[in-house]
């Protein structure tokens, strides 16, 4: 008999991830909803937004100063009668007579006839007149309508995830609301008779249920709307009932536990007869995996060890979920290894927990330094969830590599 | 007379930013509140959290397999009577007799007496007995209590901003809640008779109020709790009333507009008599600035041009606010300039809007590429808010530089 048959027939990581991506890509076509511009921060724009107005809306002053005709200040110094003042918010539609000046504030309309602004610093004002020391040419310190954006021009493109600078532009053109994609909705079901809620006293053999809380946090942090987090015992009837509620409410369902080779594998036992593919992926942690479509809803079944669950999420779900939510790609870097990896299993791609080594500066803001290296933190065990808190990347050790010396270049995935 | 007296006496950017940082640093000592672990995502831990339990809590199996005494499998193949099964969640406290095996699931307790686990792949099971093909040494596939973290050990340190991996660890040790700092609370007051709300029809001389929405979005995106966004006309009594409400509710207040050299500078007119420092900072955009402490609350007064407001926020407020909220530093890189900067004002540090040039890959997940260069997008004008939507960095042109050729190294600040 083969001593490790599972790893011989196990699917490669990239191949399995492709299957998941194929299943989830249709979630790009989600319903569109209108939200107010202030509420649109972080949401993904569903359509191109074109400006309904010119910006600037009207010809206005770039400075606090005096609007004049350039011809009136061709020879300086010159003293001109002051005919009034235009504050920001004034209509400013009375034409300016030749050889006069009118005081204008930054952003105030420039009266018809005037074609340049003399900054307040270049002017002596006196009772009813101004003496201009330095002339200006036509157009100086004048903002023409539409020079920022014209009515009808593209302002923010479909698919953009809206950051503060987009919100600023959408607000500046006066849009009350914008069309955004509804977020991807996910449901989480954890399984296992041994799991109890936080704050309970543990009886022998029990552990705290962390996977539901951890998966919900990971989904939320990647733009997904978590519609439910439920826990099932190893009773198939209970799991089936929770699954039905989850597929009714969510675009994608995540389960943890019950997918391995034990006697009580509730997830596999319920989902395999529904067409689920259950088997080994050639990775560590996170080898046993399941993938099913139930009532048209993809169900990703991760193993129950806490680190296996989180690494499965990072490797299989996070890249496509960020893509669907319009968030920047997961950052994958190549860096030298600070410490050696003494052993890595032949035939399994290993994702070790690592910490970036980067020079720190106390200065604010500091010049950013690229990380210089990555060190392995915590062991390879799939139960070392506390150790994972000390990591900021996964170190991706290829399946065919069985050890790595310090200094070797490795790929790291940002957590 | 001096043609540009303001720029001669203007304060350097770094000097003014230091003044703001000194005023805001005391906000690091904010009240502490307890939140449930699921709600703690993104919050900043106020105290060190130590594990209340050992992880693993009890000695358990790393595999689906058979727990035995290593001495019983020193010579293989060997056939042992099967005395039962321990599922995850079982107490598993009955000692295992010598020369017997008991089936154990991953995570299940290992009975006293057993000291290793034979993976299911290495075993033939038969009616009431198991034949083991390959022996294992004491400790193999056994997870000892406390090998991940010991009760009393530091789990997550004070000051950490909690990400999904921290949430996972806090959930795994069964903590129902953790102490976090209350977020920094900010209030925003925009000013100006010319501003109207989104969705209104503009009368001549009016523009849409974008600064309130944009500042609120920028604050939210940097971990700050925006408690109010209000608008004041240029009436000092109205501004004074809104200011009083803002300082009563917030840790820091941001105003926009009313700080320049015009005739109707409501912010300066109200705050300068209260001890506010108003003057020019040697930068473009964002030159006119004001800083006041009202009832013990710092009030940062930014100029009203939309780009001036946003650049002021990025340069003066964002680095310290991220530091106070425990978020990663603003990223500042040095990159070559893709296109030339033909003119930059002598004596003023200029923050141009730029876009990173980086090779894009369609692959998911893709190897991250560092940006290769930065190109100037949009003009330098402080009214070009639509153009700012196309930028992803600010290009920081030093005060003494008046032009830059393509290829010159520049510092860029991530937006």
Automatic annotation (TrEMBL), chains A, B:
Cofactors demanded by this protein: Mg(2+)
Keywords, alphabetical: Magnesium, Metal-binding, Molybdenum, Molybdenum cofactor biosynthesis, Transferase
Keyword Magnesium: yes
Reactions listed under catalytic activity: adenylyl-molybdopterin + molybdate = Mo-molybdopterin + AMP + H(+)
Pathway recorded for this protein: Cofactor biosynthesis; molybdopterin biosynthesis
InterPro entries, per the entry: MoaB/Mog_dom, MoeA-like, MoeA_C_domain_IV, MoeA_linker/N
Pfam families linked to this entry: MoCF_biosynth, MoeA_C, MoeA_N
Enzyme class: transferase
Protein's job: Catalyzes the insertion of molybdate into adenylated molybdopterin with the concomitant release of AMP.
PANTHER family, per database record: GEPHYRIN, MOLYBDOPTERIN BIOSYNTHESIS PROTEIN
Family to which this protein belongs: Belongs to the MoeA family.
Xref: NCBIfam families: Glp_gephyrin, molyb_syn
Protein name: Molybdopterin molybdenumtransferase
Species of origin: Nocardia iowensis
